[in-house]
Structure prediction request, 1219 residues.
Amino acid sequence: METYTLIVLLLAATIRVATPLLLAALAGMFSERSGVIDLGLEGKMLGAAFAAAAVSAVTGSAWAGLAAGVLTSVALALLIGFACITHRGNQVVAAMAVNIVVAGLGPSLALAWFNLGGQTPQLDAPGQRFIGLVWPWAGHARETPFPGLLYAELLSGHNLIIYLAAALVPAGAWLLYRTRFGLRLRAVGENPAAVDTAGISVNALRYQAVLISGMLCGVAGAYLSTAASSGFVRDMTAGKGYLALAALIFGKWRPYPTLGACLLFAFTDALASRLQGVALPVVGVIPVQFILALPYVLTVLLLAGFVGKAVAPQAIGVPYAKEQ
Amino acid sequence: MSAPRRLPRWADLGLLPVVSLLAALAASAAIIAVIGESPWMAMRLLVAGAFGSQEAAGYTLYYATNFIFTGLAVAVAYHAGLFNIGCEGQAYVGGLGVGLACLGLDHHWPFWAILPVAMVAAAAFGAAWAFIPAWLQARRGSHIVITTIMFNFIASALMTYLLVEVLIKPGQQSPESREFAAAAWLPSLPALLGRAGLEVSTSPLNLAFLIALAAAALVWVFLWHTRWGFALRTVGQNPAAAVYAGISPPRVTLLAMLISGALAGGLGLNEVMGGQHRLLLDFPGGAGFVGIAVALMGRNHPVGIFFAAVLFGALYQGGSQLSFDLPRVNRDLVVVIQGLVILTCGALENLFHVPLAALLARGRGKGEGE
Amino acid sequence: MSATPTESPAAFAAPGRDLPPALELRGVDKRFGAVHANRAVSFTVARGTVHGLIGENGAGKSTLMNIVYGFHQADAGEILVHGRRVELHRPHDAIAAGIGMVHQHFMLVGRFTVLENVVLGAEGGRLLAGGLARARAELETIARDYGLAVPLDAVVEHLPVGLQQRVEILKALFRRTEILILDEPTAVLTPQETEQLFHLLARLRQQGKTVILVTHKLREIMAATDRVTVMRQGAVVYETATRATSERALAESMVGRPVLLQVDKAPARPGEVLLAVKNLEVRDRFGVTRVRQASFELRAGEILGLAGVTGNGQSELLEAVAGILPPSRGEIVFKGVDLVGGGLGPRERRRLGLAHVPEDRLRMGVVATFSAQANAILGYHDRPAYNRYGLLRGAAILAGCERKMRDYDVRPASPGMPLSAFSGGNQQKLVLAREIDCDPQVLLVGQPTRGVDIGAVEFIHRRLVALRDAGKAVLLVSVELDEILGLADRILVMFNGEITGEVASAEATEQKLGLMMAGVKEGDA
Prediction:
């Protein structure tokens, strides 16, 4: 029974850890499907985390924080878009540059405005964070292991953003596969010339994709600082943006497989904390770092073609210029 | 696409980076103002903090050494048409090689015997870490940008494990190896100068700086004065012409990345053997990414890289001084400036390139061929 | 430029109708930098006809059609559709005006299905479901009307090329195109698929649509069109009803008569066989067979010309002999060495004495960003003359470049200048100098005077003859018939990947060659 409880708690932790990954991965999905590499997920999330925490601290409202986070992330996304789409700059460099700028700018502004050594103030007043929403009878349900505990831990108790993220998966799939916009978006990532000759603006589509990416990253970042923690700290994304990209690649740029990849990676993260120092049969103690490195290793194996094929959108990474 | 006006060589190598740098500095000044400090004051303190004293200058060059290594690494790959974002991980693993050599030999061999072993280890380990992404790109077409980023994280995990579990000095808390014996210390340059009669304040500046300069010279010779460098640059500029000339692009890809990784490993010499005298966590400290900025600003040429590396070293050193003197500023601001330089020098080139070319063309009359 | 007069517009209105022409161009002019792609082009396409637009590669046909489709903007001139002036700033405008285009390189999304590709841009609503269903019904009707059966749910990249092209045509018909432009449609089709395409074009004409067929293949013009316009070097040079002309006449006007520079040369004295090619089959990068069963011999002391309209396999043949494109079948033996079986690449072939001046020097023969002296050793950078233990010998390279520039009159004689700053003629002279410098036994040359000014043309021609007089062999590929006639001792003609004939140059005439270039084999009428 204890194992069962452990597993359920592990799964609940997985859901919480997977949420920012999922949001960022979905963000990347829209951008990359349109042909723009999205290495800037890290920076956009971090920027949003800072803005959300700062505004929430000042205004006392997590919702205001969320709005600020989204706006910040969108601004960063448009900056990268400006460099890459309009000016056909190098997408990798532009994204890395923004990541680095944000990594420094967040703590710099935090220090200047709040004088706490690079953090934002603790969000401990009510309304400053997104807290878990407890569903009816969850307290009672917890007493019954099955299915009560599942209800209490897996379904109930998550904050709004987690539910939002879950809803975004089918929503994203619908947008991508059942609308005109989605069709054109997918086309422009495969063969922008085909879209151009069909009379549709390639740049406009890409900007829209980048915009969506910005919005979703904004939610992801706000989650990190106002839901998962109570404030912004330096480097709080800790590589989650790249991990989300890895999950996206692992999920072959499709919404549901990406969800699976995010859950898988999040699971390894949750597992790592649990298994620290615990001896397993046969293998003994697995170093925690190995488990943490697992998502990255899996992604490399995938890219090498050993774990199935990952075929990227064909026109990805190449700025579009009409041929003579 | 109508051909963009060409910039004359001097403008492309000299003026454009300066213009980009000024744009980045202007943006930085704006941010400093937003923070509530005076941009002028900040710039003055930065320069003073970087070059104001012998000790400061020593620190500046010490940091610059790291950036020379990583800048060269990025540049060599770039000349072959590749983007090596993995210098951070390659430098980390290269340092591991140095550390292992030192830990294994420091009680048994004299310095002059340990040094070449450490240098080879730095290069070999760094190259090995670049090998797999390189092979995957050359033979299986896996996007090298993604694989090198993944390998950065894997390196981080690997090194953490090694430092926490395997190499840690018994009985201590912090994840570091034991300190090397003196035989495995790279001599400090101030000390060497002192012995030659010149009194210079101490700083971590060490022999690795000279090794980096030598590496820069060797890279220059290799790229522009050997047949392999010629082949490498041909692949980077025109793969079809390379095939025509009997050069194999996949083979060149591999070679370029191996050299790149080896150069990144040189950072390990500076930090592990020269500065810290032990293996510790995260000693690259972002130098891999700064290397990208340095290479871009230095237009992928060793001379430009040297100056760009010193500039970034100055930013680094001056930045830490800045955080002492200006209460509202910390080292993170330096990171911001670095990022802005990468942005302007690397991604917004076209933004500056076109008006600059037009300006120059007008300046010299209608001389530009049309 | 030829001065053959065109017929008056009134004479070719579609029989029985008096409607304004489907498309009329007046004075359309376009430059790309220094290249004058279209020179004041004027022509008219009558409604309900299949109109051919023919010309060599680089004649300006594709540029012109891209302007009509709104992909490029003309610098000057007007376009009238069905008698009304239109402004075509983007493909969107052209589509609205009833113009559709099937490009040479398909504009399809490989991973999408046929249905998705057809509706892209004309989805019929924000949500796909309804639009797709309606499109499916309409496409079934179109398929019936035109005999264009295509599996709507198949993924495009799995379809054979012929079917992919049908998808492109369906796209146009779905958008109610009235004027359909087909740019080199048969480039990747088998003969059977080509026949099917022609039936389709006839069907379209029956339905009152107008078709413009852009091609460089004479047979297609004769088989499928009502009228034909010939372009050369950006201008219209000839226009006629198809039934009033012949392949020969078209070939002559396509190739044109530039200023003839007669090259004085002594008769050839062919020696031993240096290069023997047997039953060579070469496929291009997409797997399409480009050279079939090619066999020939090249002897020392002769210039063997390989004539033919572009795209008939000469390029692939040349690349195969040079070692860049591996043949799928056949043999290439050079001075007794089996090049294919031995797996010898370009570097080894150069070492044996087989040099190569490529057809597209900018794409393949030089690195435009490198200096002249760097380009002067491209492919030879590992030779002892330029190398000591791997270190490049700067002084030797510089001296070598200066010598080459002197001997071949390359101007300006600045070895340090980037090659892109040199004119086309000087670039080509440097490439020639480089390839001849190491005294090759056989020189492969493709389009030696493409983009080269007159003075340099003469120089290059004299150099090639000098090489031959020194006992070397030259394999010359050129689309300029005069160049072949002037230089070659023996002429092979290629058509559709096969060598359709061989003539000694003394007996060759333009007419004879023109026929062989059009696929009429020796011995046929």
Observations:
- Chain C touches chain A through 31 residues (CB under 8 Å).
